[in-house]
What we know:
Helix 4 (508-517) packs across helix 5 (526-540). The longest helix is centred in the C-terminal third of the chain and has 15 residues, at 526-540. The strands form 3 sheets. The protein has a 28-stranded mixed β-sheet that branches. The model is unreliable at 21-35, 362-368 and 389-393 (pLDDT under 50). By secondary structure, it is mainly beta. It is built from 6 helices and 36 strands. The radius of gyration is 38 Å and the shape is elongated.
Amino acid sequence: MKRAETLKLAAGPLRYDSTKAAKPAAAKDDNNGGGSLLPAWARRTTLGTVDLKLPKVTLVTSSGTTTGGLTAAYTGKGPLKAAAWTVLPSSGTAPGTRYDSEFTLDSDLFQEGKLTRLDLKAGVRGSGMTAALDSVLRPGDEGRLRLEASASVVLEKAKIARAALEKCGADIARDGDGSLESLDLTCGLFLQPARLGIGTGPKPKALDGRLSVNGRSRGRRFETEVRARLGPTPGYGGLAFSLDADLSGSESDGLAHEKKVRITAAIEKFAELVRLLDGTEYAVPAPLNAFDGIVRATATVEGEPARLAFDVRTELASDKQALDVAVRGKASAPSLGKKAALTADVELTKVVLQLPYLELKDAPKPIVDKRIKTGDPARDKAVEDLRAGAAAATPKPAALDYDVAVRTKSPVRILTNLVKVPVPISLDVRAKPAGVSGTVKVESFDTEVFRQNATIDHFTLTPGAAGTATAVDGKIVYKRNDVTVNILVLGSTAKPAVVFESDPPMSQNEIVALVLYGKSPDELDADQKSSAGNATNAMTNGAFGLASLYLFASTPVDSVGYDAATGSYQVKFKLPGGASLSVGSNLQESRTLTLRKRLARHWEIMTEAERGSRENGAITTFLQWFERY
């Protein structure tokens, strides 16, 4: 404390009679108004009058300056009244935060060791916050104390606009030394979230429920049970919440080894919650915002170090979608010599998802601008290595040991603009710090390949070990006239290879001619024969990526060019309106995209975009005059 200004302290007779021995805990003096429940020093003390004034106290520390003041008055009769104010320091040059409080205590607590009444009212205001307490303490049955109280907090700019404990009733018993022997508390629990969303509908009601606390003390050991319930509450998606906590220990070891907390939550009307959160920072993203149904979650924490068990289930659906998922698992906090650990099993019972409109293109590979330095030489070098196409640095060991398994009970069905029918996908995947193992399998479904009906027999992706490329094993069955063609997709996602088989047997060129143009090689013109041969070589050598293969199989092909020596290809597609699109690539990852459109007999416009292997790229547009001879 730096200084105290205008200190005035006045008190009437304060008497402490040490000749009054404390009564044993077993002795219940019903005539002294609950005196046996008071600590010994309180039963020996009588207080006269108090007049305390501290108009301003200034405390200067390295973190800032705190000021405050306190006044209290007690005449020996009636209530003790007190008021205080404080200004807490703020960061920077902003003014400090001021809080004003006042309370009134009306009791005979210090009158000859009696306690027949204790009425306490208190209030605090400041920084957009108002808090209030109103409590009454009276002697109860069998020498116990009976507490009835209500408390509330109102916040102007917080997520919870008002929180309150209403109509609390508690029975309190203390032993002869004044230590707590038992506590039984029951309260009404009231929460009023701040207005969410931007809708014009009626304001939802508050969340209300019950809170109970039961505590017992035996010597130096204590046991406590806490129970809280909320909802289900209309207007908040039928939200229901419960907490059950069993805590026990002693004054020496606290709660270290004996605690169990169980929390359950449920949303009975998910669509109602989506509407409530619309327009806020908590808005539910697509495609989940179209769902309605139930979400339930349970979590249990016990022991030291803490061990968590959780179970989350969803039963959600919309007109075209469904999301029935169960997630069960365990987690443990880090302990001496061990990392935090997580194990989880995710079971997809029924999942149907509609994806947003998708375009086929490679995923971007963002790299930090070379002018930006992090200050960490090792990190800057890693970025430069990535920019130059060198191997990335060895990743640091994971701070968490995890083992997460994802399995489908029935295939996930994906609705996408890329395929006309739902795509069934089965998952059996396991993720660990060392990498991902298992399989992702596209199950059989009918679709269109090369503008003809075909069947995807299977398409299996198997993640490689230690970050290596994902293996591909796919089979497409294509039938035309009396010929059955099996198109096998092998290799990896980075460089898939395509193998053609047929019944009756045909050469690779004959099969490609059939699937590209619907004709035998003898029926093709010279350009078509060349394109069929080029397509065969390009697909066999893995020149196309998966996205290019999809585009190749789903768009009318005009011609295909392929240079085996450089590994470069160019595919020309026919577009509606007489335009054409050319896509090209080479082994150095340089890609070109060319769009041509004839404007008149001798005029055409051509736009070409080229992306290099690094950061360079260019877009050029030409207006060309041409003449064919």
